[in-house]
Write a structure and sequence with these properties.
By secondary structure, the protein is of the alpha+beta class. The protein is built from three helices and nine strands. The relative contact order is 0.23.
Length: 242
């Protein structure tokens, strides 16, 4: 269980605005409150992965760079599908065709000159069996992929994990508030407010492979990841113990 820095405060907040002086009702006394916050965690072994990989080609003309890229990328996609990946798990996320330029005034260049063209085509693959990741990368590289730009692991049940983390965060916040109330000579009253902020996890494993030959199987370790959720709560502070 990973705990965050706990922020605890014992403060007094008025339940009603002060009444003007005169014959009106007597102002209500301020009500003491206890506020705590905590971060809950749900650890898990990922069962899903997302890989972004593609082909980058260079040629003297735009048409040649594009044509060579198309042939190689088609071979890469076919290799991925041959590993049992369904078509709907593969999507193109980037295509670019850019001119490469050179400018050397010392050599007498008056303006940049085009020396070639670079075509890039990147696909994202949603992997539903994490033990396939290494084989998918190897198969893609063998068919011409030379840009594996990202690899992210995650869970197929993010909502369930977030709820586990929420419960853990609340337990911590409540435990801290209970200790603080007892130390102050009282106890917790009813819950006044409970809020939560977004969830996040640790940095994802990342791999970048460019222009490599798959001479050996690519080792991939998923490790254990975590979903973290923060909560903040306020309770009424009741003087005296039961």
């Amino acid at each position: 269980m990973q705990r965050s820095l706990i922020a605890i405060a014992l403060a007094a907040f008025p339940l009603a605005a002060q009444q003007p002086a005169g014959n009106g009702p007597t102002p209500l006394p301020p009500v003491s409150q206890i506020s705590t916050s905590a971060t809950g965690e749900a650890r898990y072994v990922p069962d899903r992965a997302t890989i972004s990989m593609g082909v980058q080609t260079r040629a003297t003309t735009a048409a040649k760079a594009s044509a060579e890229n198309a042939v190689k990328q088609r071979a890469v996609i076919d290799a991925i599908r041959a590993q049992g990946v369904a078509p709907e798990q593969i999507s193109t996320v980037n295509y670019a065709l850019n001119a490469e330029q050179d400018f050397n005034p010392q050599a007498g260049d008056k303006a940049p000159r085009v020396i070639g063209y670079v075509a890039t085509n990147t696909v994202r693959v949603e992997v539903r069996k994490v033990d396939q990741v290494g084989a998918l990368i190897d198969a893609a590289i063998a068919k011409g992929a030379n840009d594996v730009s990202s690899l992210d692991f995650h869970s197929s049940k993010p909502d369930s994990l977030r709820r586990v983390a929420l419960a853990d965060a609340y337990r911590q916040a409540y435990a801290d508030a209970t200790v603080l109330a007892k130390a102050a000579g009282g106890q917790l009253g009813e819950l006044i407010e409970l809020t939560t902020s977004g969830s996040n996890g640790p940095p994802q494993p990342y791999v970048q492979i460019r222009s490599m030959k798959a001479d050996a199987a690519t080792p991939i370790e998923t490790g254990e990841l975590a979903t973290n959720v923060a909560v903040a709560a306020r309770w009424r502070f009741v003087t005296g113990s039961k």
